[in-house]
Amino acid sequence: EEENAESWKSVLVQVTPPYLCAGLGMVGAGLVLDSVQYWPVFLTLPELFIMVPALIGLKGNLEMTLASRLSTHANLGDLDTLEQTVVMGSANLALIQVQGVVVGALASVIAMLMAWMGDPDRM
User: Helix 51-76 and helix 82-118: axis angle, to 10°?
Assistant: First the structure.
């Protein structure tokens, strides 16, 4: 057996907190969706619910993109000082926000167009 092999207990301790946080986040998202499903916009345009799985997938993709960018910068040594880390982190978070807003806006426009094409008198 290798000396560097991690024990199953060590892996369990490292893996459990992120999975618990992710699970609680999904439960929280479900609770929010349960309360907003009765908002007038969702009652008027039920097609907006089509966007929910796509936007959840988008969230995951944006998080992985951010993780990839930050790990690349860490390996290049761009995050060696606190000042560099703050600047790089702020810039990447701003970029992720812009990407999320643009794609979310496009998705909502597409959902509204789909609703309008199905019943032009509804809009």
Answer: 160
